[in-house]
Design goal:
This protein has about 150 residues and is mainly beta. The chain has one helix at about 110-120; strands at about 30-35, 40-45, 55, 65-70, 85-90.
Length: about 150
């Protein structure tokens, strides 16, 4: 957050560390007032392409709903370093595709479905934040994400 009058950096918050997946914040932030314990708290909410929603105090950048760092899959590419953890909001809903299994395949014909299932079964995928590697890798929920450029409303 920058102070508009001076350009001074007030606070920062990373929604994804070392973003190999293009899981950044695609939408404009939503500014609102959150009622907390009888007090009006100035808040900002952002949705990410990973489908996460982060709600922060817009004056301090402190999360207003719990955020935990969880271990995530690590790269197998020599020389590449990935973050050992990523931030996950705990008490808020998650949007977008959350899994990648052959049973999720879709097609117009049985042959299409079989081909799609074989393709899905052949890719490496360990869940959200699986880094692209040396063999075909699934990217779910993808760069089109849980949230995209269209934004959200309260």
């Amino acid at each position: 957050m920058l102070r508009a009058s001076t350009g001074e950096l007030v606070w920062t918050f990373q929604t994804v560390h070392h973003d190999l997946w293009d899981y950044d914040v695609p939408m404009q932030p939503i500014l609102f007032t959150l009622e907390r314990e009888g007090r009006a708290v100035p808040a900002v909410a952002v949705g990410t392409k990973s489908g996460h929603i982060f709600v922060l105090n817009r004056e301090t950048g402190v999360p207003l709903f719990s955020v935990e760092e969880h271990p995530v899959p690590q790269t197998t590419v020599p020389g590449e370093e990935t973050s050992p953890t990523q931030p996950f909001p705990i008490a808020l809903p998650v949007f977008g595709l959350r899994q990648l299994t052959p049973e999720d395949a879709w097609g117009l014909t049985p042959a299409d479905i079989r081909t799609a299932r074989e393709a899905i079964a052949s890719v490496h995928w360990e869940g959200l934040f699986t880094p692209i590697g040396l063999k075909p890798t699934g990217n779910v929920p993808s760069v089109l994400g849980g949230f995209d450029w269209g934004g959200a409303e309260l």
